[in-house]
């Protein structure tokens, strides 16, 4: 399990530096092999990193990242536009697998409230923009598969938060990405229902269909 202290929330955007220099910030996944690493964005677009960026990318092989880059040129492949880019900086983001909820791990996964500001699918992941209240302790975030299925056509998931008794002093926000591939079981897609409880004690859910990238 991976602990999370509260990652700084940064949104994808285009920023103008001056008339001739602009950079992009996007979410992606580092793919490829050493010396030929690239980044696949959440919509499937490929960023082909130049030679000067390979050393930087090598530190993040297979990681979920927030990447800052300049577009050098377009690269059209089979009618799809990808991009040749120069990587300026990379931040590693939290990426985890779905865990199975059991009697043995129920307490460690926690039952503390959490706020979810948004969910989206991308890069074969369910991405969650979350926030929680924190003081000094490290918190734990997980996505757990409920073993009791009320709907045979939908996988029931629980967004779990363990604050370890920490004080509710500061609001911390961040992102976490969950690999959903284990839920497919040979299917082309799967319906999911993610449930969580906020700090007002209100129950919420996110429903969607996960269909992996080809």
Describe this structure in words.
This protein has 214 residues and is mainly beta. The protein folds into 2 domains: 13-92, OB fold (Dihydrolipoamide Acetyltransferase, E2P), CATH 2.40.50.500; 94-210, NigD-like, C-terminal beta sandwich domain (Immunoglobulin-like, Sandwich). It is 4% helix and 58% strand. The chain is built from 2 helices and 16 strands. It has helices at 54-57, 106-109; strands at residues 3-4, 13-18, 21-33, 36-41, 46-49, 64-77, 80-92, 94-97, 99-100, 115-122, 125-134, 139-145, 154-162, 170-179, 190-197, 203-210. Strands 1, 9, 12, 13, 15 and 16 form a 6-stranded mixed β-sheet that branches. A 5-stranded mixed β-barrel has the order 3-4-5-7-6. Strands 8-14-11-10 form a 4-stranded mixed β-sheet, with no helix packed on it. The longest helix has 4 residues, at 54-57. The chain is globular, with a radius of gyration of 19 Å. Residues 1-20 have low confidence and may be disordered.
Helix content: under 10%
**SSE run:** EEEEEHEEEEHEEEEEEE
Structure classification: mainly beta
Strand content bin: over 45%
Taking pLDDT < 50 over at least 5 consecutive residues as the criterion, the unreliable ranges are: 1-20
Provide a short characterization of the protein structure.
The protein is mostly beta strands. The chain has helices at 54-57, 106-109, and strands at 3-4, 13-18, 21-33, 36-41, 46-49, 64-77, 80-92, 94-97, 99-100, 115-122, 125-134, 139-145, 154-162, 170-179, 190-197, 203-210. The chain has 2 domains: 13-92, OB fold (Dihydrolipoamide Acetyltransferase, E2P); 94-210, Immunoglobulin-like (Sandwich), CATH 2.60.40.2370.
């Amino acid at each position: 399990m991976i602990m999370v202290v509260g990652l700084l929330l940064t949104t994808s955007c285009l920023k103008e530096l001056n008339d001739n220099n602009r950079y992009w910030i996007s979410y992606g996944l580092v793919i490829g092999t050493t010396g030929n690493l690239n980044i696949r964005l959440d919509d499937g677009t490929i960023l082909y990193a130049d030679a000067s960026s390979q050393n930087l990318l090598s530190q993040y092989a297979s990681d979920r990242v927030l990447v800052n880059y300049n577009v050098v040129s377009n690269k059209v492949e089979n009618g799809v536009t990808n991009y040749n880019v120069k990587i300026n900086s990379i931040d590693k983001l939290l990426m985890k697998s779905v865990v199975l909820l059991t009697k043995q791990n129920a307490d460690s996964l926690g039952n503390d409230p959490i706020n979810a500001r948004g969910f989206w699918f991308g890069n074969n992941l369910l991405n969650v923009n979350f926030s929680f209240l924190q003081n000094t302790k490290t918190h734990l975030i997980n996505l757990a598969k409920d073993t009791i299925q009320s709907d045979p056509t939908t996988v029931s998931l629980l967004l779990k938060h363990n604050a370890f008794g920490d004080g509710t002093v500061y609001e911390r926000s961040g992102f976490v990405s969950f690999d959903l591939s284990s839920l497919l079981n040979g299917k082309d897609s799967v319906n999911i229902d993610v449930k969580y409880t906020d700090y007002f004690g209100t129950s919420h859910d996110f429903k969607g269909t996960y269909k992996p990238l080809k």
